[in-house]
Amino acid sequence: GAGVSQTPSNKVTEKGKYVELRCDPISGHTALYWYRQSLGQGPEFLIYFQGTGAADDSGLPNDRFFAVRPEGSVSTLKIQRTERGDSAVYLCASSLGGVETQYFGPGTRLLVL
Amino acid sequence: AQTVTQSQPEMSVQEAETVTLSCTYDTSESDYYLFWYKQPPSRQMILVIRQEAYKQQNATENRFSVNFQKAAKSFSLKISDSQLGDAAMYFCASIPYSQGAQKLVFGQGTRLTINP
Predict the structure, then answer these.
(1) At CA B29, angle to CA A38 and CA B79, rounded to 5?
(2) Looking at residue A8, what is its pLDDT?
(3) Number of folded domains that form chain B
(4) B1 touches chain A (CB under 8 A)
(5) By CB atoms within 10 Å of each CB, which of A54, A76, A93, B112 scores lowest?
(6) Rounded to 5, what percent of chain B is helix, strand, coil?
(7) For B3-29, what is the mean pLDDT?
(8) Residue B97's pLDDT is what?
(9) CATH number of the domain enclosing B78
(10) Nearest residue of B to residue A36 by CA position?
């Protein structure tokens, strides 16, 4: 079946702009995760959803970052007033929950100029 | 907090040879899970192998196996009969599950090069 998809694949924006990154999880997966991967680093956890609710948002760096999953499927990561330091690859993953394997999408590479 | 350390930024191996990638972790959790993920240039993270900490037997998946040393908090990945397609970044990761956490904690990664 289809894997996790993310759009756009690449996003270039200017400092101060607002961006939305979308994630389509594997059908039937109740858990959805967002990670951020800076150049040369391992991914860092941002937030995870169980169904429609954010079960753990402890990784969100500040209040410029927000994520939603209104119908328990597609999720959108929203970044307000982007800064150059937000430039990174944003990875989405989904799973059946718990410690079930997390399946990753190809990521969105965000570049803030 | 759980931390994962990969001390080898880069490794290389001759095709068909065996290579071992190192990983250590630090945790106070009683229940946790360990993973190795592969990230090729396409960026998509692919699960290579997983190990439940409560299991003493080392996990194996075809050419990939782990050496899980719980007391030493070590979790190395052995790749046998290396193939050109194995070239990628490899990340060690853990889930500190005993507190209900489901987030993966990743190491810094090891870039593996396969020499033909």
Answers:
(1) 60
(2) 97
(3) 1
(4) no
(5) A76
(6) 5, 50, 45
(7) 95
(8) 77
(9) 2.60.40.10
(10) B106
